[in-house]
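Quick one before lunch.
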Amino acid sequence: MKLTIDDVRSRFIKHFDGTTGSVYASPGRINLIGEHTDYNNGFVFPGAVEQGMIAEIKPNGTRNVHAYSIDLKDYVEFNLDDEAGPKATWARYIYGVCREMMALGVPVEGFNTAFAGDVPLGAGMSSSAALESTYAFALNDLWGDNKIEKMELARVGQRTEHKYVGCNCGIMDQFASVHGKKGSLMRLDCRSGEFEYFPWNPKGYQLILVNSCVKHELAGSPYNERRLQCEHVAEIIAKKHPEVTSLRDANYDMLEEVKAEITADEYKRARYVIGEVVRVLNVCDALQKDDYETVGQMMYETHYGLSKEYEVSCEELDFLNEIAKEEGVTGSRIMGGGFGGCTINLVADELVDNFKKVVVEKFEAKYGKKPIVIDVVIGDGSRKLC
Ligand code: GLA
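Model of the alpha-D-galactopyranose complex:
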């Protein structure tokens, strides 16, 4: 069921003093290709989805934030000037955004807020970025005269992950949530910050997510370790090739040169990233020619790399990928950070109904639970609803 303003407003009224505030929303995201390339300064190719977070916010004339999570039925209060902040992770996202906006000079004041979301949690669709972007956008509107640029709002969310939650993520999720545009994917150069909208209108194909419902949480997962491994390989390569500042600049020959100086795991991680940076560009070229077979082939290659070289897959996701192959799906791969969550599938129109049916049947037969199938609709980025 699609989340509406009323779902949030009715709870806000009930939970607080009966009055209403302003309502803001930000979406989750999909990513066509370019996984684990953002923190390696490469390219990503995400788009916002229709599902997201909605929050109602009303200044309360104090220095305290009173926050109610409708989905978790949890209530937390924190003081904006408190250095430690709340314990609950969901509240730390809001606290982190407040603190980072204050650090940018936005005179944030205390507020009452209630929020809810319809992005599945832990599905690799960036529910946390949707939450961060909602509050960054809202605080900029309420207290910042909308002076902070969108890319900086995305960085506020990213810094929140790094400093308050412990996930050293790249910029893709927050970027996509803030900048999303209905009907368009975006190709972002994560080094320069330049990006381009690509209308997503594949004739004869649809994007379908299949959520394994294996929950992933990136904080505390080997995500941060992957990032360190990549940075280490880039440093070693840079000793011979000073022009290399991140794996985005490296190639397979350079990697072979340093093979003896890095661990076998680091070698595999870097191999994946170097390949993935090129695959994003190949997909862009293929899209210009409406060549969806190539797009799909790149997606399968990404899955292979994420599973065998980057090692962020799990049995269930590999199984979903196998089913897609068996059913003749054009492209399929793990989406997002990995360790659980969804596969993203590029499916020819005539195969869609059968694929949706078969993937549920086969998965349920093996794991005793149904995966959740989601039709991708590319939606808008952060916005004020009322
Ligand atoms: C998570 C992170 C992103 C990105 C992806 C993998 O979603 O938040 O920054 O690294 O994983 O592509």
